[in-house]
Specification:
Layout (H helix, E strand, L loop, with lengths): L8 H4 L1 H11 L4 E2 H8 L3 H13 L3 E8 L2 E8 L1 H19 L3 H5 L5
Antiparallel strand pairs: 1-3, 2-3
């Protein structure tokens, strides 16, 4: 089933878009791995995750690993659908770009 193109402001911010992209390729990922992959602090990642969690797009699970409490993240079904729709809309918008702008060095 092709996702319905839909621009989603909850996903569009660069950090949240990166988080969704990473999570779309895995069942779940550990907080520290996401933080390192997108190059932000714990507090910035936490803020992004809070917005995605409030939108119903990310599930957060805490579990011990090697004697320490770890935070695991995953996209919910709604998150997967919203991300796919957002990517479809970005792809649609990119398709509207004039071919001369893409290949011939746009001088503005």
């Amino acid at each position: 089933m092709t996702p319905v193109p839909s621009f989603d402001p909850a996903i569009h911010a660069p950090g949240r878009l990166q988080i969704c992209a990473i999570l779309s390729g895995v069942d779940e990922a550990e907080f520290a791995m996401i933080r390192q992959a997108i190059g932000v602090s714990d507090s910035v990642l936490s803020k992004h995750l809070k917005q995605l969690e409030e939108a119903g797009y990310v599930a957060v699970r805490k579990a011990p690993l090697d004697g320490r409490q770890r935070t695991w993240l995953s996209l919910t079904a709604a998150g997967k659908s919203a991300f796919a729709g957002h990517v479809a809309e970005l792809t649609r918008l990119a398709g509207l770009t004039a071919p001369t702008l893409l290949g011939e060095g746009f001088a503005g």
